[in-house]
Amino acid sequence: MTHQNVHIAIVEDDNEIRQTLTLIINGSQGFTCNYAFPDAESAMVSIENLPIDIVLMDIALPGKSGIEATKYIKQKCPELDIIMLTVQSDDDSIFESLCAGASGYLLKDTDPAELLKHILEVYKGGSSMSGRIARKIVNSFRIIENPLSERETDVIKLLSKGFNYKEVATELFLSPYTVKTHIKNIYSKLRVNNRAEAIYKAFKQKLI
User: Fold this and answer.
1) Measured between alpha carbons, how far is 17 from 13 in angstroms, rounded to an integer?
2) CATH topology of domain 150-204
3) Are 176 and 169 in contact (CB under 8 A)?
4) pLDDT tier at 206 (50, 70, 90 boundaries)?
């Protein structure tokens, strides 16, 4: 696959998965794995002093998480590439990992041959993600059309900050009746029945 030797470290608490990954990597031409850690702490202490090109990092680890470890390692070794290899596909895990400095995000059900391709892609300076993860990221950047008017958006923003109806009216120089009308319209447009649901949905849809 490659004439260069890519040196990989693994951070994975599951012993069987750790051993399997090590065998796959060492059994593939152009790839070497001499270091495998069962937790974030041992990796954080050792990795900066080791000849490694790429780290495969689990997220759900005992003690510190893989995201915490990624952030720490990237501060110490900015040039070191870290690929998350996890079962977690929730938005928070994905974005926190990327913000921490991960160069890739793969799911553990990735085929071994595909895994090696992803590793090589990152080694060559790219970034790599499982198809499902890439789609999630693309979808998250799609602009959701805001169904609320500018004034309705002002109202829901203040409600989210804990303002009551009277305080909203005072802040926006509106009558309490007008505020109630805006809130009724907000509920209707967001298809919710109460203030808490309206605030939650507005946040979720990134309207505020």
Assistant:
1) 8
2) Arc Repressor Mutant, subunit A (1.10.10)
3) yes
4) confident
Burial of 79 (0-12, 13-18, 19+ CB in 10 A): exposed
**CA separation for the pair 88, 84 (Å, rounded):** 10
Q: Where are the domains of the chain?
A: 6-140, 150-204
pLDDT digits (tens, 9 = 90+) for 158-180: 999 999 999 999 999 999 999 99
E strand residue ranges, the chain? 6-11, 31-37, 54-57, 81-86, 104-107, 128-129
Backbone angles phi, psi at 53, to 5 degrees: -100, -40
Distances (CA, A) of 54 to 10, 22, 78, 99: 9, 13, 12, 17
Query: Coil, strand or helix: which one is 10?
Result: strand
Quick one: CA dihedral 111, 117, 122, 128, positive or negative?
negative
Specify the amino acid at residue 14.
Answer: D
Q: What is the pLDDT of residue 138?
A: 66
CA proximity to 104, closest of 122, 78, 79, 120: 122
Q: Regarding the domain delimited by 6-140, which CATH topology (the fold level of the hierarchy) does it fall under? A: Rossmann fold (3.40.50)
Instruction: Write down the pTM of the prediction.
Output: 0.66
Beta bridge pairs of residue 36: 10
